[in-house]
Each structure stands twice: as structure tokens, then as C-alpha cells.
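Input/output pair, single chain:
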Amino acid sequence: MSTIAAISTAHGVGGIGVIRISGEKAAKIADKVFVPFIGEKENCLQNLNGYRAKYGKIIHEKECIDDAVVLVFKAPNSYTGEDVVEISCHGGLYVTKRVLRAVLEAGADPAEPGEFTKRAFLNGKMDLSQAEAVMDLINAKGKRANQIAFKMREGSSSKKINEIKEKLIDISAGLSVWADYPEDDIPEIDEKTLKESVNKIIFELDKIIKNYDTFKAIKDGVKTAIIGRPNVGKSTLMNLLSDSKKSIVTDIPGTTRDAIEENIMIGDIPVLLVDTAGIRSTEDKVEKIGVEKAKEHMKDAEIVLFMIDASNEFSNDDKELLKILDKEKTIVLLNKCDKGQKIKKEKLSTFSDKIVELSALKGNGIEKLKDIIEEIVGLSKFDPSDSVISNERQLLDLKKAKETLSDIIKEIDFGVTLDAITVLFQDTLKFFMEFTGENVSEAVVNRVFSKFCVGK
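Output:
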């Protein structure tokens, strides 16, 4: 493979910028642009042992452009499994780009998106699911997302999948031996025991699949819309949760006419919080547009915070809104309870069991609201030690594997011969091998790494 190079740090101004070079000629190319301040000048990086660094200057077009620390890694003990050189220079936009240009003119090829990690995968430094976890680690928005992504990068999910795969291989091998050598004294396969073994594997897959939505919420965030009539306290809640004066708060109904969005953290969950216009009948053209947008956000949101002014009587407008809300994703907020509560939780218990009495003005009830949001997302029952999958590719592989295993149970019940069922076990193994990348097409591999940033 060719020797590649790219800027591996974020493209912006910073204290340090890192240019990574990987391939057989990494040290030779770096030697063309680097001159150490101390020690031998000729081929100093090629002669340097792995995990050693040199301090010197970067030369381009016979001009010294920066000081730099250059670190050398020798194959196979590097991130990519190849010889790797990392040049740490000052992190200015111009400086890092010029250092990269010098390296490319010295003989390196520009790296494609994700090509360093792709080479790590191709060189056996990690499997495909571990490689995908690299981007989850980079994009982690909170502590829990970071913890889970790090465990996946270390191979926790791969280990579990390989354990399941080994169980299937043992079962398949036993069936093959029994079918291929009927004349030998081999114990007959017990169908009941076989079904129990398959059902246990289906149960294990179910646990992993169910964790997907929770981790997706932890990783990508949850869109949460604050919905209700005008002047019920939506903007006050927005400001409280976002810890800012994002929304204008007045006693005049209809102040918020457009949706206001803010990214916040609720516990370990990234939340896109949307404060919407109060929903009511209006002849005001601008406010009417805001009301329609509020209804759109209500439909699109994964969680709806439906706010009611509990200091007033339960209105017909509130009743009409309750009718069109999705019960499963809605939390009912009885706001302004500090002003005297005229609407009790019991009155709404037939609609929802997710009801919070609060005062957005004073902050009362906010902790309970956060707990319910975590419960809806699934975080309250989520065990971070469980195996997790992080993307649709992995989810699809496990769903197909589960579906094929379910077909095996049906075939056994229908009386299909066990030698025919062996074929289904082979089909199931294929999905697990696709998961880890042991048996996956080049197109799939290219698609996975095309989602990476250049330099990773």
C-alpha cells in the first residue's frame, strides 16, 4: 500500500497540530522535510527506534517553516499496524497545511476519510465494530457515551458476539458430524436441548438489540419539544433547563412566535430542547405560522413536554391538545403549582402515568422531570456493562441473525430434518462474521470508513 498523510487534529487554530504519516516509506518521507537540532542529520528518523521522538525544524522549499516534535512508531506496533510518523507542530491553519503540503510533495499520498483506521482494520489491529467505535469515541457528547464507546473500542461488543458465534459453531459442528456419519456411534441430537440452546442465544441477542435505542439517544441526543397553550411557562422552563435567558419571558400571551432551540445535557443524555409557540386559535398571521411550526415539532420530537397551567382550571384547549399527543412519548407538566394548584395529577392519570408537578419559575420538580426523561430513553434500566451496538449496520446484522435463529425453532417444530437445519446455522454465522468484518464485502468496508473524518 502507498504511504499516506493527513492532518489528524481538528482543522482550526490550536496550540498543536498533528500531521500523521503511515506506510512503508513514512520515516523516509519525513526525513526529507525534518532536520533535528541535535544528533545525526542524515536519515535520523529512519534510524530512530520506535516510540522515540526528535525535536527539530520542518523545511519546505528550502525555508524553515516551523519547529516540530516528530514521533516514530514501527510496524506492527502502531495505530495502523504500519510504520507511522507523527509531526507535532504549532496549530495554526496555515502552518499545519504547509507542513502537510511539504510531506505530500516529499512523496506521500493524501489520506482518504478514515483511511488510517481502515488500515488498522485491514492489518488486524481491530475488527470492524471496534473501528466503528472510534468515531463514537470522537463524537461522544457526555461521560456515559464516552464510557460506552471506549469499551466498544476495546472490544467488549466484539467479545460478546464472538462468544455467541462460538456457541453456534459448536452446535453446527455437532449437527454436521451427526448428519455426515450416521453409521458411527454418535449420540442422537436431542431436539428439545437444541431448541433451548437456540432460544438462549436469541435471548442474548434481544438484550443487545434493545440497548441500541438507549445508546443511540446517549450518543446522538433526543429531540424534546415543549408544547402547550400560550403563557403556561414554556419559555421559563426553557431558560431553566438551558441555564440561560434563551427565550423571552413576559406576561403577554403569544410572545414566542418561532421555535427556539438549544442543545443541553440532562444527566448523561444530550437533548435538543425546543421551545415552541403557544398553541391556540389566532388570526395573527405570524403567530399562526408559529403555531403550525409548534405542531410540526410536536410530531417530530422523540419526547414531548406538554405543559399545563395548574393554577387555572383545566381548559378545553388543554383537552384538545391531549387528544392529539402521543401518550408514549409525552410527559405532562403541571406548572405553576407554587401559585395554588387547581388541577390535580389524578385528573390526568387516565391519559398518562408520566406527570410532574412543578414550578418552572422556582425550579421545583425539575429533578423528577429529568428522572422521567432518563426513564423514557431507557437509561434508568441501562447497564453500561452490557454489550452495545452503535449503528444501523450492526443492528441489521443482529436482527437478521435473530430472525434466522427464530426460523430454526420453527423448522424444528415443523419436523424438518436436522441436516437441513444445519444450513440455517451456517446462514446465521454469516451475519456474525459480517458484524466483526471477518466476512464482509469491500463495498461495506468502504462505506463504513467513508463516514470518518480525514486524518482518522
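The chain has three domains: 4-115, 139-216+387-437, 223-359. The chain has a mean pLDDT of 87.
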